[in-house]
Write a structure and sequence with these properties.
The protein contains 20 helices and 20 strands. By secondary structure, it is an alpha+beta fold. The protein is flat. The chain starts with a helix and ends with a strand.
Length: about 700
């Protein structure tokens, strides 16, 4: 700041010098006229020189001030807490401060001149492009949030705000790192989602017992929505007999005392009482004061019901154990000794219960010896189940009997227990022996029955063979009749074609030839009478000859056009199509390539005949105003498609064997399949009819 002050003093001195020169010039006496002009000019030059020096000094002073301000601005710009960028309309970075370069992880010298879109993640580029367009299209400030990819640091999220400069060619943008804010929002959203979608009811209430928060679990458990409960007293959920309990809990919370986990009863919206477990925690203000309480409520009705069912099940099991018609004994896997036996077992062995408890299985005669008993226990520990189909058992009174034993190893209140179910199968064994004898007697009877069944099966097979042969004979006769019908239709079609050709020759060609003959006779007479009028007489004769040629040409084209062999399929189709609108008054459009590629004569003929038959049918039956003919090359096949907008017909009915007037469709179908192609017809009301023939490319 000292340097500008010094320059101000120098400027003041220059001003005083200039004023002195002016005063001196004014105080001097008037010189001679010539000298006076020279002195005045010198005086003015000195004054002008001093003014220029004054202006230069002021400019130097202003430059010094500007440089000082620029240094301060540069420090503020480069080391600002946010990033600053200047972007061109195409997104190229023109200017950047150090903070912006640090945020994107690139040195400032390398950042300037690069497109900013390449610095954001691929998923954020469309958003940046739309943001940049809006900045230059609108005059208001725009903002967008973008993700930066990880380079030297973890991925970041930034907020970019920009507004165009006055020249509308660049925009100034401010970039702020909001990664931490987004993470905090995500964490808060996750915690809110956990609370909202928790299976437990999480309820907040103030010290007056008014509900302040209500999650989705509370809504599912109690049936009340958050709108119904927030702002309502918590006592809506508490049965009258439990209100004092809630008052005591709220009092303990107010006094800052801890409330342990407890089980109680609460009411749902429909008035149903249910068992719940409740955990209460205080809600504190930032200064530590108690604001209210948070309750985590879990529906334990199913657990309570399960406990009740377990108690009932234990009672039922004990009843079954006591009243079972099979012997049941329980053993300790560690000692291999009996710890309990049911009454049926005592009756089966003839021992009292106290006499059985404490003994091993071999001691009551169930297994041969101690070694067999130990082996059974070892196997049972591995497989958890053992089965003995028949074991000899001798009661205390000496009664011999056979039993079936099923042993299971399971856990009872966390300790292993072995249960053996013992069933007396003596009577069953006797019944099985009797059954074996009956089975032996029945075996011979079964053999005889099988032989009878086999013979019946052979007879049935012969009958089925006869029926099948009869069916084949009927089908053969039907096919022969069908073949004869097709032959008759073919003969009739040939005869009809011959009749049409004969009629056309008689009606058209014959009349034309007669006309030519008469005109020739007139020509001869006219030549004798008026040789100069020969040209007028020849003109109608030439017309008749030309008409005859056209008719003959049309017959030749309909039978088989020469252009099909000489020029190819496309010219032949075009020549045939050009005649139809003139003759029928319909519009026919053709689309197709100039050259469809290599295709042999048979396939060209097939496609031409299909087009000829389809266009003839459209002219006779469909009443169509527009017919589209398309020839398409599709890979290794060529496809002909004829579509009209005329009347539809039932394709299935026309293709059935009961429909007689279907030779044209059969002919098209057979021609296409004969060269390895595919043929189809679709017809729908309002859409017209489409005939499609597709044959493979390839030639001879």
């Amino acid at each position: 700041m000292k340097k500008p002050a010094k320059r101000t003093q120098e400027t003041g001195g220059l001003r005083r010098r200039a004023e002195g020169i002016v005063d001196n010039g004014a105080s001097t006496g008037a010189p001679l006229p010539g000298i006076a002009d020279s002195q005045r000019m010198i005086h003015e030059l000195r004054v002008h020189e001093i003014e220029l020096e004054l202006q230069n000094e002021e400019l130097r002073e202003a430059k010094a001030v500007a440089e000082t301000a620029l240094e301060k601005y540069t420090e503020l710009y480069d080391f600002a807490a946010v990033g600053y960028l200047t972007l061109a309309s195409d997104g190229t970075v023109r200017l950047s401060n150090l903070t912006a370069a640090s945020l994107v992880g690139i040195e400032r010298s390398r950042l300037v001149g690069r497109p900013f879109a390449g610095l954001v993640s691929a998923g954020s580029r469309p958003a940046f492009t739309s943001f940049l367009k809006a900045v230059f299209a609108l005059r208001t400030k725009q903002s967008v949030e973008l993700d930066l990819p990880a380079r030297q640091h973890p991925p970041r999220t930034i907020r970019l705000e920009a507004e165009t400069l006055s020249d509308r060619k660049e925009c100034r943008a401010m970039m702020v790192d909001i990664t931490h804010d987004r993470r905090m929002e995500a964490t808060a959203a996750e915690l809110a989602a956990i609370v909202e979608f928790s299976a437990d009811a999480i309820i907040g209430k103030n010290l007056k017992g008014i509900v302040t928060s209500w999650n989705g679990g509370a809504e599912r458990i109690f049936g009340y929505s958050a709108t119904e409960m927030v702002g309502s007293p918590i006592t809506r959920l508490i049965p009258p007999e439990r209100l004092q309990e809630e008052v005591e809990i709220l009092g303990r919370i107010k006094r800052g005392q801890c409330v342990e986990h407890f089980e109680t009863v609460r009411m749902t919206k429909n008035g149903r009482k249910m068992d719940v477990s409740v955990t209460v925690s205080p809600i504190l203000y930032a200064d530590g004061r108690i604001a209210g309480a948070s309750k985590v409520v879990r529906d334990i009705s199913e657990r309570k019901q399960a406990q009740d069912r377990l108690r009932v099940s234990e009672i039922r099991y004990r009843r079954l154990f006591e009243t079972a018609n099979d012997g049941v004994i329980l053993l300790d896997p560690g000692t291999c000794k009996i710890i309990d036996a049911n009454p049926f077992m005592t009756r089966l062995l003839g021992y009292e219960r106290d006499q059985l408890v404490g003994k091993e299985l071999y001691e009551i005669g169930l297994l041969k010896d101690a070694a067999a008993s130990r082996q059974m226990f070892r196997n049972l520990k591995k497989t958890h189940e053992m089965r003995y189909e028949d074991l000899p058992l001798k009661s205390q009174r000496g009664r011999n009997q056979e039993v079936e034993v099923v042993a299971n190893l399971y856990q009872e209140d966390g300790r292993p227990v072995i249960q053996c179910n013992i069933r007396d199968i003596t009577v069953r064994k006797q019944a099985e022996a009797a059954q074996h004898r009956l089975d032996a007697l029945a075996a011979s009877s079964d053999t005889l029955k099988q032989e009878i069944v086999r013979r019946h099966a052979e007879e049935e097979s012969l009958r089925q063979s006869e029926n099948h042969a009869r069916l084949l004979w009927q089908q053969s006769e039907q096919l022969q009749a069908k073949l004869r019908q097709f032959a008759r239709q073919n003969l009739l079609a040939q005869e009809n074609q011959r009749r049409e050709i004969s009629r056309a020759l008689h009606d058209d060609i014959s009349q034309l030839l007669v006309g030519i003959d008469l005109n020739l006779e007139v020509f001869v007479k006219a030549a004798e009478i008026d040789p100069a009028g020969i040209r007028r007489t020849v003109t109608p004769l030439r017309r008749l000859v030309g008409k005859s040629l056209r008719i003959v040409h049309r017959f030749a084209r309909e039978l088989r056009p020469a252009s099909l062999d000489d020029l190819g399929l496309v010219p032949a189709l075009l020549a045939y199509i050009e005649e139809i609108p003139k003759r029928k008054g319909r519009q026919i459009r053709f689309t197709g390539p100039d050259n469809i590629g290599p295709i042999d004569n048979d396939k060209r003929t097939v496609l031409y005949r299909v087009a000829q038959e389809a266009l003839t049918n459209a002219a006779r039956h469909s009443e169509a105003s527009v017919v589209n003919v398309a020839l398409l090359k599709n890979g290794k096949t060529v496809c002909l498609e004829i579509a009209d907008n005329g009347k539809a017909f039932d394709v299935d009915r026309l293709a059935s064997r009961n429909w007689n007037n279907r030779l044209g469709m059969i002919g098209m179908h057979e021609r296409v399949e004969m060269v390895g192609g595919r043929f189809s017809i679709t017809s729908s009301p309002g859409l017209g009819t489409t005939i499609r023939a597709e044959v493979p490319l390839g030639g001879n």
